[in-house]
Amino acid sequence: MKLKVVIFSLSVFGYTGFTAQNIQNNPGSNHGNRFEQLGTILPTPNMYRTASGAPGHGYWQNRADYNITAYLDEDKRNLKGSETVTYYNNSPDELDYIWLQLDENEHSNIKNAGYDTSSVLRPSTTDQQLKVTELPVKDNGYGVNLEKVTDAAGNPLKYTVNKTMMRIDLPKALKKGEKLIFKVDWNYNIGNRIKMGGRGGYENFPEDGNDLYTMAQWYPRMCVYSDFQGWQNHQFTGRGEFALVFGDFKVSINVPADHMVGGTGECKNYDQVLTPDQLSRYRKAENASEPVEIVTLDEAKKAEKNHSKQRKTWNFEAKDVRDFAWTSSRKFIWDGMRVTIPENNNKVMAMSFYPKESYGLYRKFSTKAVAHTIKTYSEFTIPYPYPVAQSVEAANGMEYPMICFNFGRTEKDGTYSEGTKNGMIGVIIHEVGHNFFPMIINSDERQWAWMDEGLNTFTEYLTEEKWDNTFPSKRGPAWTIVDYMKLPKDQLEPIMSNSENIVQYGPNAYSKPATGLNILRETIMGRELFDKAFKTYAKRWAFKHPEPADLFRTMEDASGEDLDWFWRGWFYGTDPVDIAIDKVTVATPNLETHPKVAEEIKYQVDKPLVNSFEDLSKIRNREDKNITFYVDKDKDVQDFYYRYDRGQEKVSTKEYTTKKEATLPLDARDKDRFKNMTAYQIDFVNKGGLVMPIILEFTFEDGSKLYDKSAAQIWRLNEQKVSKTYYFDKKLKSIQLDPMRETADIDTTNNFWSSAGSGTETSKFQLFKQKQEGGSVRGGANGKVNPMQAAGKS
């Protein structure tokens, strides 16, 4: 095919000879291995976890079923409990001992994990911060008091408590396929959650003299024994959350008769604990499409005034859950409605419990937000499988299967700000969303906070968007992570850091992974590929124990995208994104310059090609009598290299000729076509270190715009500098890099060029042949843009 060559005249002088071709062919020492595969950084695939990211044919996990009775002593603020645990060993290993978590020891000053942090003198302090140091330390009376640990027959079992963990030594090894039944009786003093912190405890309301209890981490819980770690018995410091096993729960909770109780699972005796009117309203709520008050505001206000000395027992059951939490107070208003999950036709009871202090907000929004959350998460992950989903207003935020604790109180006159409303809705969506991450897709929170908080925050962002398109989400959009990414390197740490060792916990565990997933979805993979891969991960690891590699591998396996560069940079590194427009060089056509006519080019071989220096291996091979060369075995082979090397007759020279196809001069039509063409070479510099796609918005002098995107792989041959050349038949006014701020670029001041003068230096360049037919530049949705289409021509 004949080529039309257009010679372009450089619009500026001082050509340096540095072109896009030079950059790509002379990268120098530019590689930071940003595009290398993760390789040995990820664990080796095996029969338990495959290279595709799916559970292997040998995957296993252990199980624990609980039968628990609990007694809440409101006067003493004490919880007394007794549990029977049935533990199933599905692993291939024999277990000589088992480990349980005693999380309430966190509040003990002598039995806690003992992970100190540095402290300094303050210019001023509060009475809560001012504590007299006494040595030896006196027991503050908090933490788990073990009364009895026995086997199923009542025989004592030997156990050892190490801070927040308890090891039970077994009389004989628990073999594969066997189960162990044991019993634990315990009690502990319930702490003031508002003053002491933590997830479980009570909040006191001095105005009416009542408590609101959120009972979490309240019973001895089995640790996870896994294929990737063995026993997960890392100490509980209050930050890194939990690794737990699935099982069935039967829980009986004895509380004052005027308390209302919400818990994980379904209550099996509402007919015994509710009044006839309350039970009737509950039955109505079961089929309602709007929240119905089961316990009314007036009933709650009346209950606050009379502290009953009678008792009631509430019975709950939950199947295939990893934990159980509950709440109890006479202050509760309670409403509910039915929501149907379309994907599995599951009819779920969405409910909310809240004190009068929250009525103005929770009555309007809470239960509706619960229903919206489980429906939206079901679209993006797996269908919600449980029969109940509950939100409890408790001035905090924490999650458990089918129940979560949130904030959202009005002013005393019932008014509230827009910020309080949005904050409440956001935290309800977040905590209800935790039913999926990690309550169902059961990651190890103690090790990897981001696997539940980050993935959940990302899906929260999707859910907030579907709640209200103008919702002011603070985590998820790329631009919201910029301030964190701007921090000095000594204040940053990789997402792939242990929960206990993270300094900037919120950005690192929540915001950055959520933002990374959003960038993958919107900018790198596209929604269709991402959503399929993300759902595949959720489906593969529902009711199982995933690790980071399982997510990384599944996302690639289900999408066909090589994302190792992204995991390496965003999750394992601390580099920010800062891509700058360094130079823009402009050229216009010189249509009077023509190439030479076609000519014959002669090629000839006048002697064999041999190395200028004969290396040691060649000499030794020749001297080795045991080596027979291929040409010695086949004498008919006319190997002139071999013959020339041995001084035999010289191979006669053979001449070859070929005709180089050259371009004919431009005709009038071509001149008309190219006369308005302008070429632009844009040089980019990667100042931040983290590679990303190059996204450009071109604005032309006539006001029209064009968008173009190059995949991140444009940096693969040079991670520091790349160039892009475009041809337009109308003049550019400006170029904007990352116009929608979708890559988390930390410096947007170097993302703009203007033909009117932006301070960006231009330089001369040489422009080589461009095909007249089928010519293209990289970019666009499919990586190709026809230059005529790019210029607005069809």
TrEMBL record:
GO terms for biological process: peptide catabolic process. SUPFAM superfamilies: Metalloproteases ('zincins'), catalytic domain. GO terms for cellular component: cytoplasm; extracellular space; membrane. Residues 371-570 form the Peptidase M1 membrane alanine aminopeptidase domain. InterPro entries: Peptidase_M1_aminopeptidases, Peptidase_M1_dom, Peptidase_M4/M1_CTD_sf. Residues 772-794 are annotated as: Disordered. GO terms for molecular function: metalloaminopeptidase activity; peptide binding; zinc ion binding. CDD domains: M1_APN_like (cd09604). Pfam families: Peptidase_M1 (PF01433). This is M1 family peptidase.
